[in-house]
Specification:
Layout (H helix, E strand, L loop, with lengths): L26 H16 L6 H14 L7 E3 L1 H12 L1 E4 L2 E3 L8 E4 L4 H4 L7 E5 L2 E2 L5 H8 L6 E7 L7 E6 L1 E4 L3 E2 L2 E2 L5 E2 L1 E3 L4 E6 L6 H14 L4 E5 L8 H9 L7 E7 L7 E4 L11 E5 L6 H11 L4 E4 L7 E7 L6 E10 L32 H15 L12 H7 L1 H15 L8
Parallel strand pairs: 14-15, 15-18, 18-19
Antiparallel strand pairs: 1-21, 2-9, 3-4, 5-6, 5-7, 7-8, 10-14, 11-12, 13-14, 16-17, 16-21, 20-21
Length: 437
Amino acid sequence: MPRRNLWAILGVAAVSLVCYHAADRNPLGRYFSQVVDRIEQQYVEEVDRQKLWNAAVDGMIAELHDPYSHYDSPSKAAELEEELEQQFAGVGLMLAPTTDQLTVFSPIVGSPAYRAGILAGDVITKIDGVSTQGMTISEASRRMRGKANQPVHVTIERVGHSAPIEVTVTRGIVKLDSVLGDTRLADDRWNFFLDRDKNIAYLRIVNFGERTVDELRAALEELKAGGMKGLILDLRNNPGGLLPAAVGVCELFLPKGQTIVTVRGRDGAVPERKFVAGGGEKFLDLPLAVLVNHTSASASEIVAGCLQDHHRAVIIGERTWGKGTVQNIIQLSDDIGNLTLTTAKFLRPSEKPIHRQLDAKGADPWGVSPDAGYQVTLSDEGWKNWNQWRRERDIVRPHSDSEPAFKSEISQQDKPLRRAVDSIESKIAGGEEKPAI
């Protein structure tokens, strides 16, 4: 991933907490080195030096009492890169986590597996001739990922077929969308209209990655050309991502010069930086509702808080998670992994804090709360049912099995979304909506 594109990294040079290369300058480094050497040479059983390092770093970070600072091994660091890049080399399958057999939850649209005809519900019995009996999802994913343009031979069992089906899939670069719709069109692309009769659009941002702003802009331009009259932006279950992506999303809906977010570090250790909306394509007159819930965090809270402070959107749902800190991703020397370190906090345009301290009370200011009259809270069971409904709705099915989206189904299964639809319909009609109390 071209890290120069990530503001969060700030061009930070490779850093090691207590590396051996700095031992002559740092007495703690020498002491640490001595302890490791003694354990490795004299402990009653053989030890893994890498595990000692991991444990030492984890111990130091634990002393910070910060759940967002952490050390990632090289393999974990690579996974994070893929998530932020929104792409990886593989076949492009999502596997179901709750079955005894290795079962395809859904192919990723446009991926090699999708083009090869692998379907949701297919059971993978062999990968390159190796039985998947007892194989974990992690192991299966490792076997199916790898260098692009290399073949993977998959044996599947499919309902309605008496004999196993042999499929050869050539690995490719699989791109992961971060901007989704509610249902799919006939060609399996996302349908970004929720209600075509009233031209109400619906966009889900599931994370903030390198391509999120470009994806969102393209979807908005497509919707504008299609006659969009109002938009629902769904940030529920969005854990965050890249700060530049959150800033870019806000810029699409704000006039030039309006403050988006302020980043403030420790006593000047990180210079304060204020992000403001620039020029370019804008959607300023579009009625806008934003959905959030208790797991909307970080970058999603920047967007919701910014649009709320500028009275640009109505915020609907639940109070957000309360993660208002910025992490730098620091590459450690000698390819020993990454250090993700909290270096600053961000503030809303109103200067209100988003971050929830460990001892914070419900009455304290943190997170982003729905606008007055727009709180729609679900029980734990309600969220469990909604998540299951949403996952089932996202499966890429054979076209004969596709089901249309019914407003009644949305009303029954997604009450916050129904509330957002009512809000947008009222604004489109030009009336003054009466919030529910």
